Amino acid sequence: MTVPGRRSSTFSRLLRSGFTDPSAAAGLLDAPALAAVRADPVLLDALGATADPDLALLGLVRLAEAQPPHELPGLLDTLVSAKPLRDRLLGVLGASEALGDHLARHPRDWQSLVTYEAADLHPGLPEFERGLADAHEPVALRVAYRRCLLSIAARDVCGTIDVVETAAELADLATATLRAALRIASAAAPEDAARCRLAVIAMGKCGGNELNYVSDVDVIFVGEAAPGTDEAKGLQAATRLASHLMRICSETTVEGTIWPVDANLRPEGRNGPLVRTLASHLAYYQRWAKTWEFQALLKARAVAGDRDLGAQYVEAITPLVWQAAERENFVADVQKMRRRVVDNIPAAQVDRELKLGPGGLRDVEFAVQLLQLVHGRSDATLHSRTTLDALHALAAGGYVGRADAAQLHDAYRFLRAMEHRIQLYRLRRTHLVPEDENDLRRLGRSMGLRTEPVAELNKAWRRHASVVRRLHEKLFYRPLLDAVAQLAPGETRLSPRAAGQRLEALGYADPAGALRHLEALASGVTRKAAIQRTLLPVLLGWFADSADPDAGLLNFRKVSDALGKTPWYLRLLRDEGAAAENLARVLSAGRLAPDLLLRAPEAVALLGDPEGLQPRAHEALEQEVLAAVGRAENPEAAVAAARGVRRRELFRTTAADIIGSYGTEDSPAEEDHGALVDRVGGAVSDLTAATLAGALRAAVHSHFGDTLPTRFAVIGVGRFGGHELGYGSDADVLFVHEPREGVGEQEAAKAAQTVIAEMRRLLQLPSTDPPLLIDADLRPEGRSGPLARTLASYAAYYRRWSLTWESQALLRAEPVAGDTELGARFIELIDPLRYPAEGLGEDAVREIRRLKARMESERLPRGADPTLHTKLGRGGLSDVEWTVQLMQMQHAWSEPGLRTTRTRRALAAAHAAGLIPTEEAQILDEAWVLATRVRNAVMLVRGRAGDTFPPEARELAAVGRYLGYAEGTVGEMLDDYRRITRRARAVVEERFYGA
After folding, report:
1. CA gap 478, 499 in Å, rounded
2. How far is residue 141's CA from residue 530's CA, in Å, rounded to a whole number?
3. 713 phi/psi in degrees, rounded to 5
4. pLDDT tens digits, one per residue of 841-859
5. By the number of CB atoms within 10 A of the CB, which of 122, 255, 399, 862 ranks highest?
6. In the Cβ-directed half-sphere of 353, how many Cα atoms lie within 13 Å?
């Protein structure tokens, strides 16, 4: 019978010792197998020191119960009397459920943790080969492998070896295992072994002596026929041996598997032969290999099979590796390799990815390998297979800053230790940080974090990942600044040649020019230069991530020259986390945004304000413009003030569009492209309306003082009235006026004409700003008719002369400036025209279709590709808009939702009303949004409007980057555009033309 007080005391002690389930633990301690030691305080303290005391106790009970009766006393006696062995055994049981399972199946294997010699504490390849020597078939090899793995894990969790030594021992154990597997395969087919020479080349982490607990072991096989054997037969024999070796290691048996052997890094990958001769390997690498293949060959190490053949292979490929940076396609390949491939990681897992996520292990490994390829061709000290050794060599040679290398070294070791502990638990290949609280607790305790293991682990992990994220780009660029700046005595710097090579490898087309910009920005001992040296390493990486890094750097120099003396500029970039990256994205995305910024450099401040990129309301814009106009001394100064507001707000809009389309490190690209298009269209339309209001106020004031003899309103039509203006769109308008009381019609008409002429004059004054052209050609009688009409004149014209196309043009009419009440009355006048009662008659529908067909055949520019013209091409803006407008004119009389000037809203209303199926509505919407984005991208990139993709390669690539396409995928972009618009055209044929 258990005494209540004693139970409470045991329960409390178990809690203090770190057990999360004291009741279950008390039950396990009462197991008969532990009767001899359950009261020993040493045992409880030792269990409490493990990563997971509950798991360690459960594993210990299972191990004890599996012991032969005559051997159990030896285990229990060792547990309480031999501290080193106790710590190793319980440490493994508390960190690895999988190794606990192994010990339960093989209860005598705990004795392999007993050490007698110094060599037992730090075994190498010979010791592991001896440990596997008695394994003559796959199952025995698995058992022997786990026994050796047990010794590595025990010394790892107890701190006898560090993460680097653990990784090296795992690689040695893998080498010994590959040799044992080849020995077993050769014994099973002695005839094949006699016919060939086979060498196994380790790649990846195994080749680099930095293996994980559970990882694919990457290999390449090199084979030659034995003397006197036909080459084809010799290679066939080698292939059978290699295949058998892979199965021995990879297949699942009653003892599980060891790890997959992956030969996909061989020439031609899965499509190539498993085994090639040395000559065949060399022929491939000299003619066909890509840059990533040479990057992989950095790790190549002969580990098993024919030693002479393996050595010959490594000797032959080594010069090719270090010449890779001189290859013609090196720069393009590197740019593709630099861009992280996280698209295939489920969104829910990105933040938990230790290897591929932002600030992960791959960042460090890729950065180090790339710098090795760039500089190792002229510096043999960089020829190391191991990441941390190579990082040390890069720092020693001045290719990487010493402080940066030290921080990266510590972060990499921490992340690799996390990866080891995560994999050790179940011996599964994973790089995901667990989400379960108990798993995180065990992981944190295994890393030595005992006070608040989960919180401390998350804090340390985020800190180290942040270091990697911050430094892996600076690793490339900080030494470039040192190459052009004064250094402390004894420091090593990059030579100008090495600096140029690095810039060229990272996508800068003019390395010499880039170095001149860096020197101008960062040299000297001023505070400004010091801050620039802090900012530039990161900025240069962001520039290099664009389609035109050189333009980004040049624009940054121009902005810095313009604002260099202002106290807030560099402080903003240094202290406001998002400002520097936002600026880098904006400056390297094309011409329009940088040109706007260079004419109003103080707008940089918008990039550091969390609300700075939000579009402003129309009322606020108009109020600011009218206030600025009111303060001006003359109409020219008034319109200049209005233009100043327009310039700043256009920059705000372009910057938000670019940043939303590209995304940043902390904020992914906007996935809802329709929302992006709507924001741009709304912001540019509101800004245009406010600018016209300012020009109207200035024109009236300069000729008539405070009151115009006639009431006057500006009606936006086309994309302007639809709130769909792009960066390069004209402002399509109608002008309506109404004489004030006592003013004759002739005087009123003359006043209206005077105001319109003055507005046009003011808005067309020479300026470096993007033009704002007023287009009134959609007015009654077109260019032959008067620029302005009275409301009564419009009513008379529409009643007597209006054509169907004019009613269609009025679908997107909306007041934008001037007399609000007059504008509202104009809308009342035209509503019956654009939303005709009972819809359109057959004749009107035929007329609209005929006009559209004529426009398609006559207005498309000569030589333009109809599949790529965004406005008039197949499935482009015109196709979608005319289809939607036809539905509006046919059904808006009975469907109020269709009474809108906006294309996407009208399309959504048509779908809601059942006028168009879901799939077809989505097809039209997708095509319209894409065509609009292409037009916006062309203006952003080229600084001038265009309706088709630019022909110049770098500009086309920049359009692709804006649309979300990676470097080198412009062909895919054009194919996607054609596919999407082709589908839209099919809908148009049915819905508009009735095909």
Report:
1. 11
2. 60
3. -140, 145
4. 999 999 999 999 998 888 8
5. 399
6. 21
Report whether 255 contacts 139 (CB < 8 A).
Answer: yes
What 3-state class would DSSP assign to 745? Answer: helix
Give the strand pairing for 261-262 and 788-790: unpaired
d(CA 829, CA 792): 10
- Percent of the chain that is helix, strand, coil (3-state, to 5): 65, 5, 30
Residue 368, token pair as written in the block: 């180090």
Q: In sequence order, which residues have a C-beta less than 8 Å from that of residue 593 and are 6 or more positions away?
A: 586, 587, 651, 654, 655, 658, 940
Residue-by-residue DSSP string for 54-102: HHHHHHHHHHHHHS-TTTHHHHHHHHHH-HHHHHHHHHHHHH-HHHHHH
User: Could you tell me the CA-to-CA distances from 105 to 64, 177, 827, 899 in Å, in that order?
Assistant: 11, 21, 86, 76
pTM of the model: 0.71
Whether 337 and 366 have beta carbons less than 8 Å apart is answered as: yes
Sign of CA dihedral 795, 800, 801, 802: positive
- Check residue 608 and give its pLDDT: 86
H or E element: which one contains 306? Answer: none
Q: What is the rounded CA–CA span in Å between residue 586 and residue 543? A: 10
Strand 217-225 vs strand 275-276: parallel, antiparallel, or unpaired? parallel
Structure tokens at 239: 């292939």
As given in the structure block, the two tokens for residue 663 are 């995304």
Residues 752-784 have pLDDT tens digits of 999 999 999 999 998 877 778 899 999 998 889
- Reading the block at residue 627, the tokens are 């206030």
- Count of residues making up the chain: 995
- Angle (nearest 5°) at CA 70 between 157 and 97: 25
